[in-house]
Specification:
363 residues, Spore Coat Polysaccharide Biosynthesis Protein SpsA, Chain A, 7-stranded mixed beta sheet, binds guanosine-5'-diphosphate-alpha-D-mannose, binds manganese (II) ion
């Protein structure tokens, strides 16, 4: 049996015609269609449930409080009965006529059969230059990571045999749009990949959900499965936040000093007060951004966030002490000043990152 997953978010207008078309294309193939909808505001799930009412081959999973194309597809695969599992966009951009070929390829030879825009004979159709360029860059990055060769690892149109899916399953990362890439990164070496060319069509109704956030998640994923083994992504994010914090620190210092002196020369006391104000401003900034971005998966809320903020202050104080201790130590042993300061700063960052991982954002 062929189980075809249709992930949907706000596709109410597209679903009825598409399901009819799929049914026509898959006439000779025993199949089921599983719509996985993330509680779409346009009530795609309701339209789908009505369609499924008098048909045994159509199933609907309505997920509450969750979002994401990849995780919807994985969930659909897990609920499927077929020995071959497939996916396609629910907006008409993928050619239904290709479904029997994709199914046959994966059923006959195992592994993955991809509806490919980049293999000979395929095309992305009518895209503006920006999307074209983005897709090419993303594809280039993605290709280099795959365990098996494929020219379009970002395609959302493919079929995979159940055994191959189950082998990759324990290692999948369900964030974002990159379900096929994630499979290609985690299937056993030597898995058979077949590419069948097609032209990416136009969306029937509605708009694309490939947001800026999805793009950032993609870059994070690329990092995670390549360099992430050596330097964890969270630490890199923490350092990026810290660098922005330096800019905030300098700006806040300028602002406070101006407030106190109105542009005149500062006394030592005014200077010290401004530095102290700038330090705390930067700490607040770093805490908020780390909580929202670096540690978004374990974000602190309400009272927890307040307690976390106090711990963060403590950890930063420790970082500063470590920073001072190391630079002073190196300096006193005759190392060049700049060297001592830079090594001290690095030690401070690593120290305060570690403290925050242990105390503020655990887990
Ligand atoms: N359940 C669920 N949850 N479905 C989603 C979500 C979500 O959060 N986000 C998107 N979808 C569904 C859409 O409703 C659509 O059926 C399908 O996933 C693809 O989303 P589109 O918004 O149509 O993506 P696209 O056409 O811009 O992107 C296509 O090309 C990309 C590569 O260029 C897709 O084929 C992607 O899979 C592909 O990576
Ligand atoms: Mn689409």
């Amino acid at each position: 049996m062929f189980s075809l997953i249709l992930p949907t978010y706000n596709e109410a207008k597209n679903i009825p015609a598409l399901v009819e078309k799929i049914r026509g294309s898959l006439k000779g193939v025993p199949h089921e269609i599983i719509i996985v909808d993330d509680d779409s505001p346009d009530e795609t799930w309701r339209v789908a449930q009505e369609l499924a009412h008098d048909r045994d081959d159509l199933h609907v999973i309505r997920r509450i409080g969750r979002r994401g194309l990849s995780s919807a597809v994985i969930e659909g695969f897990l609920a499927a009965k077929g020995d071959v599992l497939g996916v396609m966009d629910a907006d008409g951009q993928h050619d239904c006529g290709l479904l029997p070929k994709l199914h046959k390829a994966a059923a006959a030879e195992g592994g993955i059969a991809i509806g490919s825009r980049y293999t000979e004979g395929g095309s992305v159709g009518e895209w503006d230059e920006r999307r074209h360029l983005m897709s090419r860059i993303a594809t280039r990055l993605a290709v280099s990571l795959c365990r098996v060769k494929a020219s379009d690892p970002m395609s959302g149109f493919f079929a995979i045999d159940r055994q191959t899916f189950e082998k990759a399953l324990p290692n999948l990362n369900p964030k974002g749009f990159k379900i096929l890439l994630d499979l290609l990164v985690h299937v056993p070496k030597g898995t058979k990949v077949q590419e069948i060319p097609f032209t990416f069509g136009k969306r029937m109704h509605g708009e694309s959900k490939l947001s800026r956030r999805v793009q950032i998640e993609f870059l994070e994923y690329i990092y995670d499965v390549s360099l992430g083994r050596y330097v964890p992504l969270m630490f890199v994010k923490y350092c990026i936040v810290g660098s922005l914090g330096v800019v905030v620190h300098v700006s806040a210092f300028t602002f406070f000093e101006y407030l106190l002196t109105r542009g005149g020369g500062a006394t030592f006391q005014q200077f010290s007060l401004s530095v102290a104000g700038a330090i705390e401003t930067a700490i607040v900034f770093n805490f908020l951004l780390n909580n929202a971005w670096t540690f978004s998966h374990i974000k602190l809320k309400g009272k927890q966030a307040f307690v976390g903020f106090l711990k963060f202050n403590g950890a930063c104080l420790f970082g500063a002490l470590a920073n001072y201790a190391v630079s002073a130590f190196l300096f006193s042993f005759g190392f060049p000043e700049l060297f001592a300061v830079v090594v001290g700063a690095f030690t401070g960052v690593i120290w305060n990152y570690t403290m925050n991982r242990l105390l503020t954002w655990r887990g």
